[in-house]
Amino acid sequence: MLFYSFSSLSFRLSFPRSELSQNLQALSEKAKSGTEFIQRLKKMADSVSGNCAEFEKTVVAQCDALIEVIKQRKAELLENVAEEKALKVRTLKEQVSDCTALLQRTTGLLQFCIEVLKESDATSFLQVSSGLISRVATADANFNKEMELAPRVSPEFELTLDNTPAIHAIQNMSFFQMKGKPHPSLPFTRSPCW
Question: Is 136 exposed, middle or buried (CB count within 10 Å of its CB: 0-12, 13-18, 19+)?
Fold first, then answer.
């Protein structure tokens, strides 16, 4: 009977031992995978500094590219301002020249008429007076039209630079996620002995 009970006990122990051994084997594999995963995480942590330096270089390069675009646009806008300035100055100088010429003609006519009025010879005066009266009347009637008593262009720069959208875009410039975040996971399953 002792042999039977020992044999029965041995048989009854072999099944749980086998199951425990299998579960230990599975758990050991998972622990090994966990250790390897921890090593990979440590290597990843070590590579963060290098990746950060590369990413910083990329950010600097992209911001520098934006600054270059702004500098180019600034140069173009300043060139437009210089062209507008040149046009205004040229237009005003032309108006000064036209007005000066009209004023010189008017002054010449005035001086000539004053000399004619001083003429003591009545016959000479009568010969030129009707033509001068007509000429002075025409000059008087056309003076305000030809003189243009208002500037042809404004000395002010009636333009505005709308940089609000660009400033808003720069202020809202941010990073976006290109890839899904890696979620490290280990396939742990519940062991039947737990």
Answer: middle
